[in-house]
Amino acid sequence: MIVTIDGPAGAGKSSAARALAQRLGFRFLDTGAMYRAVTYAALKRGEDLEDTRAIARVAREISPELVLTGDSVLLADEDITRAIRTFEITTATRHAADCPEVRSTLVDLQRQLADGLDVVAEGRDQSTVVFPHAECKIFLTASEEVRAERRYLDMVNRGEHVSRDEVLEKQRERDDRDSSRPVGALTKATDAIEFCTDGLEPDEVVERLMEIVADRRKAVGS
User: Fold this and answer.
1) Which residues bind ATP (predicted)?
2) According to the annotation, is 25 in a ligand binding site?
């Protein structure tokens, strides 16, 4: 069974999807981490992020070395879990996400990783592009202010020096890009269930997601 969780930045997709996968005993596929990893690798190599051919080449070259296991993201022998969550990488990841060649490479990788498995996949285009036939599609969202506050607190807790206004401004820019990019744009699938997490604790979000998955399992007879 494939469960997709799409939604805007800061909606809490990664943490909710990870917890849901653990509860279900499914594999968790953090697709956002893949685009971040490409960005991290490109910057580390000194590539120009405006050079689409260069960043596409980086994506192809690191794909065999990219491992998502539990809460960790590994690139070859390097643990890049924390490094790819910095404000710098978050802001620069748009270059990888907007590149059609990068998206093609990573979509193929995502499908390979999910082949024959029970998976919870989170991202922007999981239900519309990567797994359009997923048995359970969820569109997770939250208000703009709640999303920005979550992202701000997350960054501060990691020791980064950012302001709430700066985070909100970057989030608005990211929302605009995510909804308007030519490939993999953020859109709600027509058969997705929308769920707003405003005012809910993380455990409450996961419980509701468990209910949604259980209902879908009954509906599809799996």
Assistant:
1) 7-15
2) no
